[in-house]
Predict the 3D structure of the following.
Amino acid sequence: MYENFTDSFSPPMINGESLKSVKVTKSLGVFLDSSLTLERQISSVVSAGFFHLRNIKKLHPFLPHDSLATLMHAFVSSRIDYCNALYIGLPLKLIHRLQLIQNSAARVVKNVSRFNHITPVLLELHWLPMQRRITFKVLVLVFKALNGLGPNYLQHLLTPYVPARPLRSLHGLLLRVPRMRMKIGERSFSFCAATSWNALLINIRISPSLSTFKSSLKTFLFNGVFNLS
C-alpha cells in the first residue's frame, strides 16, 4: 500500500515544470530548510560572525574605541541583524547562539574579559540584546505596514482589533491576535507581530513618524530589558 502511494505521488508543478524537492535552499542570502527551523541559517551567521570577530580583535591594540565599534557594526552586527525578523519565535537555544556573538563583540569593543558579566557592557554600549533586536525589527515592520510605508502583503496579515462594544481600547490601535491550532503557528508573523504590538504603550503605537517610533521603541525595549525606570 505504501509503495503504491509513493509511486502515485506527483511533485508540484508550475507552468508544466516539476519542482525539485530540496532540504535546504538559499534566498536573498538566507538559508531556508524544509522544516523552517532556520538552524542552517543561524549556523552560517554564527560562523561568519566569529570569523570577522577574530580578525577585528587582532586590530584592537591599534584602533580607538569608536573605530572598533564601527567595524563591529559593519562586519558583525549587520550580519546578525540581517533579516532577523525571520528569527522571531525560534527556540531560545538558537537565539542564544547569536547572543554569544554579540556578547563577544561587546567585550572586544570595551576590552573586557570574557569572565566579566555582559549586562553592564551591553548597557554601556546601549546595545539591545538579540531577542529585543528581533522584536525591534518586527515592530518596525508593523509600524510601516500600518502606516502605508511597507509592502501590502504585510498589511494584509495585520487585522485591527474591534471590540464587541465600544471600549477605550478601540482607540488604542490594537491588533487582533489570531488563534493558532498548533504551537508552531505562534511563530507566524501575524501572531508574533500582534502580540508584540499590543504590548507597547499607546503613545508609542500612535507615534507621528517612523523616526519617532524607532526612538521611542528602542527606549521602551532598552528600559524593559535592563530594568531601567
